[in-house]
Structure formats: C-alpha cells, structure tokens
Amino acid sequence: MDTLRKWQEYADLDPELKEELNQLSEEELQEAFYKDLEFGTAGMRGIIGPGTNRMNIYTLRRANYGYGKYLLNKYTKPSVVIAYDSRHKSKEFAEECAKVLGEMKIKVYLFSKITPTPELSFAVRHLRAQGGIIITASHNPPNFNGYKVYDEYGCQLVPELLDEVLEELEQAPDAFTIPTGNFQELLEKGYINIIGDDFDEIYLSEVRKVAVNPHLKKDGFLVVFTPLHGTAAHHGERLLKDLGYDYRVVEEQMVPDPDFRTVNYPNPEDPDAFALAIAYGKKYGADILLATDPDADRIGMAVFDGKNYVLLSGNQTGALLLHYLINEKKPKKSSVVFKTIVTSDLGEKIARAASLEVVSTLTGFRYIGEQARLLEATDKEFFFGYEESFGYVIKPFVRDKDSLQALVLCCEAANFYKLRGKNLLDVLEDIYREYGYHEDGIVNLQFAGREGAERIEAIMEYFRSNRFTHIGSSKLIATEDYLERVRREGEVTSVLTLPASDVIKFFLEDDAWVVLRPSGTEPKLKIYFSAVSEDRDAAEEKVEELKSVILSMIEKAG
Fold it and tell me: Which residues have a catalytic role annotated?
C-alpha cells in the first residue's frame, strides 16, 4: 500500500500510466503491486502497465540501474548492445534502457529497428561489448513485454551472474529518482550509438555458413515461411532467396504487428499458429512449412506427408537435424552435443551411437550458451545444441537459440532427403525403428496471480516431500530434485552438479520419465512426459497414462 500511494502521489508519473492506474480495480491494484517483477529463466517478463509487478519505464529504470552497476563493478568503460522486437512499447522501452545506461556513462549500441534475438547475441560478441539487452516477451500474449540481459559472451546471464545484478537491484534507489539522460544529448556525446541496417549482413553471412551441402539442387522443392508478425521477416526471406530456394511467404504475417491479429497465440509450438501457412502450403504445393516466433529465436516445422501437413515437435526436429549433421558433417570424436533435462532422450541416443559426448543442462538456453563458452578452453568442439521448446543452435557464434540457423538447416535437410526419395517423416520413421519410438508430451497448467503462485508452490512441495514407489503402473527408478540438488535411487542418495532450480524429474522403468517445472517467465506449471517403446501406439498410450496419473495427483496436492 505504501508503494501504491507513492505511485499515486508522484507528480511526474507518466500520464498514460497515471490514467491506467486510476482505472484499476482493487483486485487489479493488488496484482500490480503485491511484488516486484522478477527475473526468471529467460529474463523479466510481465503485463505492460502501471505497478511494480508490471512492465513499464519505472521497473525498467530499476532493472537497468542494477544491471549498469553490475557492469561498472566488473569492467572499465563497459558497453552494451540493445535490441527490441515488434511488441507494444518495445522501442520506447529500448530507448529508456539506453537513456539510463547512457546517463551512467555506459556506452550503448542501439539497433535502429526491430531485431531478432540471436542477432543481438551475435552483436554483443562482434562489437566486443560487455553486455546486451533485448526487449521482448518472445511468444507471450500481446499485452506482455519483457527484458533479457546478456553477458560479454552473448549469453543470457546465468544465475550466479544474475545474483550480482539482483544484489545491486536491492540497493537501487527509488525508481522515480533514478536519473535518465536526454536521448539526443546522449547521442551527441557518443554514449548512444545507432546500429544501422548494414549490420544485418555481417550476421547473415555467418548464418549462411551453417549450410553443410549448400550446392544441392533445389528444383522441385518449395518452402512456405512465416515470421508470425515478428522480427524474422526480412532475415528469413533473405536467407531463402540467397540460398536459392523456391519459397512463398505468408503475406498477412510478414507485417510486424504487436497485436498478432492473425493468430490466437504467436507460438510455433501451437498448431493453430500454422493455419495460414498450411493454407499457403496447400495452395502452392509446399514440401515444408516454417514458422518463427516473434523474437526469432524459436522455429517450428510442418512436413507434407502426401495428404496433410504434420507439425513436428521440437524433439523430433532436433533429432532430425542432429541425425542429418552427424551423417553429412561427419563430426570429430571430440564433438559435444548439448540438450536440456526436459529434452527427449532420442537425440542423445543418436549422438552416442556416433560416439559423441552428450551434456544435459537445466532448462533455459543460457546454460547451453554457457557450456559453449566453457568448451572453448578444451580440446573439444561444439557440435549441436537444442531444447524441446523449438530452440536450436548449430554454430556457436550465437550463444542463444537461433531460428535463422535452424531455418537454413531445416530447408537443407528436407531438400537433401527429397532428392533421395524421402520426406522428413520417412527419415523420422527410420530413426524410430533404430532407436525406438519416443513419444513426448507437455501439459501447461495456468495459475494466475498471487494465489496461482501459492498453488504452484504447494504442488511442487507435494511431489518433493512424498516418496513415491510408482507413478501409475510404472515403477519409480530414481528421482532427481534440482532444488535440493540430490538424486535418490532406492536407498542411495547422490549429489547433482547442476545449479539449484525448482525442478523435479522422475525416472521410471522402460526409459519413461516425468518432469515438473514452474515456468520462469509465465504464471504456469509445466509438466513434461516421455515414453519409449518398440511400438508407437504403446509409447503414446504410456504418455497418456502418465498425464492422467500426474494430473490426478496434482488434484490431491490441493
């Protein structure tokens, strides 16, 4: 209430925010002010509006003050690259970041237009900056925006570095007293520098090098591409044209639109987001459909099976790309593949069959980016990194997931196999016959507001505190609790080396598993399922059984 009164009484409050504040109900005020907006697995995201638990210029001022102090403590004369996506307020928020940091005498490189997240990651390294910021809420609903911060290696801050930022945040002055410079004056003084269109070519020239067989014949192969109103529109079409593919773009979705009017949910993981792409595919006879999310770090793919378009899961696409790379790129024995703990085991089996090392990280591509950097000090080399949520990186000049790299490889792999009389579904079937049918599933349970956060906490405590012997008809083999950092297998307890995180993984007989993880960026609980069988139907039935059992247990958890 003290914070609310301070906002209500602040004479210079942004007029638009003041008007919104005066229109909020008591319940809405409670949600807007009951806590500060927090950093999660992919930065800070929230609903745009007034309040400490909302995205606005004042929460951004505090975040940038903490980040700026962190940089000034760590480096002499640091610089930061700032990019933004096509969402509401993104450009305004990016400029606000620049004004706070510039006033702190931190040199800023600001992109002049909407820019893909992977290009921001690349720019941090290329410009030898000490940090990076992107204003984006990825595939969240239109009323959201967000803020992600990067280290000098172009990787999102891992927890121990983020903790240093949060320490500075705790000591930050009131948001209303944090000074911001005049944008034009900071430009003239050289504290803000604009990155023009010519930088795109520097990034795209590296992306093109992802191609393994760039000179394949492309006659008779057609791609439909959509950026879902986001930042990949120019880059995606440019790559398809430069690499010689016959393609069609979904015209209605090539326009940056913060309201995402043609989709209910701008996420390539959602089959409904492909509706227009499917219509284009049927009209022009496309072999594959590709959709990137609004900030262009994720990509989804649908494949024509002769009758319909089949949307591949992130696990399936990852396994196909890895399979293609292993067979065509011929990796060295010292190569390493990275995946997350919620990613299917199928890719790991493919990699190990080729004698490649596989490393599992916590959920969040920042951990894969961190591992890519650590690998540079060894005699090993990065080969491929991916996660089930449609994120892939093939070459680590980007330390975040990169839909543009994946676009190049998806097109090439699909074309390569078509030249040999197969589509990607045929190849996937071959993989399943060799390694078993891996069926995966995910359930997202929405829990909004303070009550929702308390409910998620209670559910996690229920699964953490109970010692199950079975989940449904499946015998429990081991449990890994990443918050307590312990693995329990029967009477044996061992220590996990991964950082602490509120995640629980249950390993079941026959290579099945279940993971429970509160989302780090949205008010929901994510539950992941995986089952393996020599029979597809049996694997699917096992996943459905596990879903039913876990949801029933959640009901009991209260």
Answer: 138
